[in-house]
Amino acid sequence: MGSDIFEISVNAVKIVALFLLMVQIVPLLVWVERRGSAFIQNRFGPNRVGPLGLTQLLADAVKFIFKEEFIPEKGRAFIFYAAPVVALLPATLAFVSLPLSAPVNVETFEMFGQSWGPYTFQFQGFDFGLGIVYVLGVSSLATYSMLMAGWSSSNKFSLFGGLRASAQMISYELALGLSIVGILILYGTFDFKTMIAAQQGALSFHFFGEMVTIPFLPNWGIFYQPLGAVLFLVAVFAESNRLPFDLPEAESELVAGYHTEYGGMKFNMFFIGEYGHMLVASALMAIFYFGGYNIPFVTPEQLSGFLEGFGYVGTTNSLMTSFLLHLCMFLKILFFLWVFIWVRWTLPRFRYDQLMDLGWKTMLPWALANTIITAIVVFVMRM
Amino acid sequence: MTSTVLFYLLSVVSIVFALGVLFNPNPIFSALYLVLTMIGMSLMFFNLEAYFIGGVQLIVYAGAVTVLFVMVLMLFDLKKEKQAFTKGLFSSLLKYFSAGALLFMISGASLMSMGLMTEGAEKAEPITTKQLAALLFTDYFFAFEVLGIILLVVAIGAVTISRIRGGTHAK
Amino acid sequence: MLSSMMMEVGLGHYLFVGAAIFIIGMLTVLMRKNVIVILMGIELMLNAVNLTIVSFSHFSNNVNGQILAFFVMTIAAAEAGVGLALAVTVFKKFKDVKISFFEHLRG
Predict the structure, then answer these.
(1) Domain that holds residue B66
(2) Cβ–Cβ of B28/A151 closer than 8 Å?
(3) Do B55 and A173 touch (CB under 8 A)?
């Protein structure tokens, strides 16, 4: 935490920028989702308003804002209003704690007749040193928005949607938590930045006391934890209530689930919350299993040395490095967001008992097995 | 300074929400107040530099236990209770009085015995999760294993109890 | 004297907050009729105890306190699970969850 004006203002700007990043990516994702679904289903999708239908989003926003407000007569007004706000909170709080790039080192410089000392700015909202525990804790609060929305609507479909959502999220939280234990054992830390730092360069590991290096593969977590990665991806799909796990809002059974009674901007906030969850999930997937902000085979030091060759030194160099790494991170995140959309328009929905069976009888045992095997292998290999 | 301000803010918030649990006649609102109390307590743990415990508090209490409470209450779909509190003026007065006396006694006792407590070693750095884990898997290993067995027994027991007389999965 | 006590938050302050929340939890158990709200009161009490333990651990720089708090949390979660299962069973029979229905449990 900084103590002088420059550092404090940069930190404040950073937090606002991270929030805006999360909120502003949603309309783009909606566009990608609609065009993508049209592409998958061999249709056109929105293509009338603006180039490639991009301004459709603006039209949607105007419609959302000017829609009539509606509260169910027997509903609970306060909870009804609070639920969409609560839907936004967890994803935002989780997202600001994710490191999106390497820290920026600012050297001493002169401004307003003063010299401002060297700074290090983390590309991250804040850091408890708690990493994944904090993210899991905060994102588990997302259930309340669904329960509150479902209950306060005083509508049976909404209530069932909310109940389904909470049962599903509690069940899959177990599998989610256990699937990353393997990664935690492997890197020996909760902290994201340490994990990412451990995934630099080419694949190399201890094999009975010897270092083995495989030069044609990057040093990514997925090569150590393939089963964990698959389980994590599935659990994350269930946690963000996306197809094939969107039982809480299954339109053929429950109209629209917990947000049946919501319209306009309030509905849109649930939407933003869902996309925020996808964003956090994609970022976690990238951090745990795909090297975070590392460019494959290139360490940040090599990158900054490369940039020095072009005459960028000091602060500019650090900024450029950070920016390039951030770009790499975002490409990975965008890829996983596309996977989310791709799966949504490819797979059919589960039945509810199938969903529970998958969570409790398949994923939980496999995640436990993954944990035990990882622990044994890590212990034996490092001897 | 920050921790002082945070302490007063969080303690007031936690106590007010805990009072909400006690006095709100609708059980669902009680449960939602309980969530807010839990979040306040977890922030209090962060303020005490017990980051891991705070995170676990968020996951376990706010994320799982209270969700169960809210979910079960919504499943029952209880109406606002006409008789949320126990009857009897005299007995409730007695209860409030004894609770107040207990609070007075506890705080008095802790104030009086404050001098007896020797200050620990000078505050070095906050306790890390690694230290916790090392202790948990060495000194407290037996307790940890027993805890695992208890959780298993509880899981089986809860399933058995709630499946008595049919239930949703009855064939 | 008073202002210096207000400014420097020590162990006593945390103990008082813990005691207050414990008392509120106790009153919840004593005053309410709904079984689930009574369980909530128990959770409040356990949480207050946790706060006390963690603040002792913080002010005496001792790791063991946090482990104790960790154990308490696990047990509290287990207790809530069993309690809610019992409440569900009682609700199935009586369509309500008043504590007085537990008189009918026997054998």
Answers:
(1) 1-79
(2) yes
(3) no
Q: Which residues, 6+ apart, have CB-to-CB distance to A261 below 8 Å?
A: A70, A72, A75, A80, A153, A155, A158
Q: How many domains does chain B have?
A: 2
* Angle subtended at Cα B77 by Cα C101 and Cα A136, rounded to the nearest 5 degrees: 105
C-beta atoms surrounding A10 within 10 Å:
14
Question: Among A62-66, A178-182, A190-194, A311-315, which stretch is predicted with the lowest mean pLDDT?
Answer: A311-315
Q: How far is CA A143 from CA A86, A218, A241, B70, C22, in A?
A: 9, 37, 10, 10, 27
| Among candidates B28, B63, B75 on the partner chain, residue whose Cβ is nearest the Cβ of A137 | B63
A102-129 pLDDT, tens digit per residue, is 777 777 776 776 777 777 777 777 777 7
**Is chain C touching chain A, with at least 3 CB–CB pairs below 8 Å?**
no
Q: Which of A128, A134, A147 sits opposite B71 (nearest CB)?
A: A147
Identify the sign of the CA torsion A194, A124, A275, A133.
positive
CA-based nearest residue in chain B for residue C34 = B84
Residue B36's domain is classified under what CATH number? Answer: 1.20.120.1200
Q: Which structural domain range is residue C53 located in?
A: 2-104
Does residue B88 come out as left (phi exceeding 0), alpha (psi in the -120 to 50 range) or beta?
left
CATH code at C96?
Answer: 1.10.287.3510
Q: What is the pTM of this model?
A: 0.85
pLDDT in tens, A324-341: 888 888 888 888 888 888
Put simply, the chain C residues between 17 and 46 with a CB less than 8 A from any chain B CB are 17, 19-28, 30-34, 36-37, 39-41, 43-44
Using a CB-CB cut-off of 8 Å, the residues of chain A touching B70 are 144, 147, 166
In this structure, the answer to whether residues B72 and B12 fall within a common structural domain is yes
Q: Which chains touch A (3 or more CB pairs under 8 A)?
A: B
The C-alpha of B171 sits at a distance from chain C's nearest C-alpha, in angstroms, of 17
CB contact under 8 A, B69 and C71: no
Boundary residue ending a domain (B63, B79, B95): B79
- Tell me if there are at least 3 CB pairs under 8 Å linking chains C and B: yes
**What is the structure's pLDDT at C82?**
87
Higher pLDDT among residues A111 and C57, named by residue: C57
pLDDT confidence of residue A1: 42
CA-nearest residue to A127 within chain B is: B51
